[in-house]
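Interim report, section 4.2 (structural modelling).
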Amino acid sequence: MKSYDHKKIEKKWQDLWDKKKIYQANDKSKKPKFYSLVEFPYPSGDGLHVGHPRSYVGMDVISRKKRMDGYNVLYPMGWDAFGLPTENFAIKTGKQPKVITKKNTDTFRRQAKSLGISFDWSREINTTDPNYYKWTQWIFLQFLKKGLAYKAKSEINWCPKDKIGLANEEAVGGICDRCGTPTIKKEKEQWMLAITKYADRLDKDLDLVDYPERVKLSQRNWIGKSEGSEIEFKTSINRNIKVFTTRADTLFGVTYVVLAPEHPNIGEFLVQSKNMAEVSQYIREVKSRTEIERTAEDKEKTGVELKEIYAINPANGEEVPVWVADYVLAGYGTGAVMAVPQHDARDKEFAEKYNLPIIDRPLVNAEEITQKVGGKMVTKFKLRDWVFSRQRYWGEPIPVINCEKCGLVPVPEKDLPVKLPEVKNYKPTDTGESPLASISKWVNVKCPKCGGKAKRETDTMPNWAGSSWYYLRYVDPKNKKEFASKKNLKYWTPVDWYNGGMEHTTLHLLYSRFWHKFLYDLKLVPTVEPYKKRTSHGMILGEGGVKMSKSLGNVVNPDEIVKIYGADTLRVYEMFMGPFEETAVWNTDSIIGARRFIEKVWRIGEKVIKTESSLSGSLSPRARGALPLGSTACETPRQENSVLLTKLLHKTIKKVSGDIEAMRFNTAISAMMILVTEMEKEQGLSLEDYKKFLQILAPFAPHVAEEIWHLLGDPTSPRLRGAKEKSINISDWPEWDEKLIKEDEMKIMIQVNGKVRGEIMVGSNENEEKIKKEAQEHLSVKKFTEGKEIKKIIYVKGRLVNIVI
RNA sequence: GCCCGAGUGGCGGAACUGGUAUACGCGCACGACUUAAAAUCGUGUCUCGCAAGGGAUGUGGGUUCGAUUCCCACCUCGGGCACCA
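Predicted structure of the assembly:
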């Protein structure tokens, strides 16, 4: 046996696994299925960085264990390849986005393979592949058919630098998500998806899934469900003001009413106010401000009174002034609020600034008062409809045709996919139209309905489109008739375990749940929720605890680590560096610990092989497994190790089994390290025990485990060496023996007043009284109890005795 | 401002339902092997103290025989949301 050479071993097994297709999922298996999923990456030009493997290896460990547990595992990978960085690179270099993407995915694939991740590469998908986005477009047409995709003139967040319309969530705080430029509001016809129609179900059904509490919470906050009352205020003009409040109980404390500057009926109030010029000036001012200016932290509230217009409090008939102020949002509730300065900090701030009355009134029952004033209880959501248009090239074309006569006409399903044409210039236009608009050959088409002159929609879909349903395509990635067959969907979905980053818990997760529910309503998928269980890995920060970034020059390339230390070492290190769900700081110096661990495993392997071959002799092949149990005759001498080590092995098997399921990879590895240290000390290590250890190591370090496994030979086969043995990675996960784990002696700590003073060993079935007695007689304990009155003695089974004096 | 999460050796971290605080790893020191070095192995490594013993899990209090763990208040860091009525 040669010394450990990770380069040879890893390459050899990666190729063999590929050839033997041992990680391919089987659509027709009788085994129980397990669908494990990681977020497919955006294949950037920089290649994989060490953060990616954290998620991939974590789920790989789980997938590998599940295979060994007897599951038919689907663990797929693909590319979420539409997106701005590629397009921007295309603009800069003039290369085709398609070509750039091909290059990047090749790099990513090579890197992922070099880590020995057990992905089923036969199901690889790419969102930019027309065979894939055909179905993204098809699903869009279903939304259109059901009236959930619609075009609306709306104010969008416009980035003047990227020249692109952004969704609210991409322009948080009025700053472009991509380049940091302050966004401005711009009116534009946009495609929208009515996610708000699903708001309530998206909130409620979180009860059905196994997500971490913090993930559920952030989804709930994003959806922002709140229950309250809608109450109408009559006014001095012929137009009521409807307000939304969660505090109808404070209705008697209302001292004024406020309209948002963008309130739909603002015009009617404006023209009848005495200070029309002043008010319209104010509204104009507000609209000219950027989002940042409007929401700046220290910004003082502004507003203007609609003079000579008043509203009537329906609770007591009082007349109160009406104001326009930009602290009221048009997009939430009714765009108007009743102000109760006594109970609301914002109203109070405003009232104090403009000398509006602040009054204290008794509170009443919210529901009763709502009913009494003719209002109704309603539920509102913060969630807005999803702006689904992008004025960009590198996205799925929205499959719609604008006909001069017929209006918006969906592209017939038989004409899908609407393929992206090749263009010369990928730069978006200053008018805000997609570069597609300038390709007249592509744009000008016949109307599918009337055959008349028509133009294609030139907007494309946002990044989130392709990733909203990709997990469905994996179950049947080559299907030409449907996005996936009913049969495969029924077998594989839902995803059993989905791991990804915290940064995707609000948007991607919510969007894909929305699409899934929509498809469920169309009876196209069998389950209400797409993901049964979701976990989140922590980020990997650069040395010093800062984010890895090119500008800081602290990005670690996994290729380097694989080259120097090997994939197994990188895998073990990343799983060992800290709790999986928490942020971890990269430390190149610590990798050596993982490498030493693997080398130790290798050395023990060498030792075991040496003893085995000396025992079996060179003439006869070993036939240990073939011998009947308990047979003594002619048996070759077998190497035995101490019962203590076997006990430790079984404890470790149990610990590792449980830790993998709970993603406590760090403590699993720690337990294996302890076992390995003990195994190395052991004089004669038995082949069986060592092989069991290799099996529990295999999910973490599959290459080295496989190599030694094959060098040792399969004990159930008469052959010591040879290529025909089964892979360790699909062998049966070892079982532990509870009897061996149970100690016949237990260590009991003795405390005096809660302080440890000694310990005794007792039989595991020893009765309480005897243990207590023995504890009191313990020498180093007596020292503390002598001459003191013993108040009571507490015994915790199998743990300790506490003597209280 | 609001909502989460976290504060344990020189460092990454462990302690699963309240029961030996600091497992495992990195680093460091010393020793063995070696002509030497590397690698490897062994020993030690929270702190004060010669010792007996005492003190430490962000700070202060509480509950308990017993608290890193539960409760209250505060401080610091990380993340998310942010005028959502």
